[in-house]
Each structure stands twice: as C-alpha cells, then as structure tokens.
Amino acid sequence: MLSERINALFSLLQCNNTEIARFAGCSPGNISKLKTGNREPKPGSRSIAAFAEGVYGYAEDENLLPVLAELCHAPDITREALAPALTAWLFGPGEVSLPRLTATPRSKRARVRQRRSFGERLDRA
What we know:
Structural class: mainly alpha
Order of helices and strands: HHHHHHH
Number of helices: 7
Distance between the termini: 52 Å
Number of strands: 0
C-alpha cells in the first residue's frame, strides 16, 4: 500500500510533510493526503513525480542519497536513476523492508550538537 511505504520512507529519512513539500513545490496538505492514503494517484501521475522530486531534493540536501538509493535498489544516486527507482519502490509489491544503512539528516545533526553543547554547558555550571 502506498501510504505504508510513504510512512516507512518518512521514518527512514526522519522527515515530515513540510520538508518534503518544500522540495516538491506543493503544500504539506498534499503530502499528508498521500501519507494517510486519502489520495492514491497512479505511478505515472504528476503528483507522484513531484513527490519523488521532493524526496530526492530533501535526501540530497540532508546527505541521505545513499540511504535512499539502498532503499530503492537504485544503481546510483543521480536524479535520473533514483526518481524512477523510488516510484517503482513506492508502488512495488511485497513487504516494506528498510535498509540497514542509516544516517542522521544534516539538519538534525546540528540540533543534536546544539543540545549536547547546552548539556555540556549546564554540566559545567
């Protein structure tokens, strides 16, 4: 089911509707409809193409393209290879299995460092 795969993808990439929508050029509400299953477009639709572009843009920005490529079994991390592989994975059969390769998105690493440095400052005080 498409919504299951989208939720697994969001979990793997540690992203939310707003982050993907920003790169997809649509509203977070459109992404939410895909995530909840309220909207089930066809694999070749413009909304799925925009969603794949949004996921690619987010993964590129957060240095997560290798994780995305492993998930989709894409031959490389180029947009031309990954976007169609992601679409095929989204509509593919079988159970969802997430890759072993994991990474923390760049923007989330900065927040972890900020929290750690605050904790360190608090310990010193």
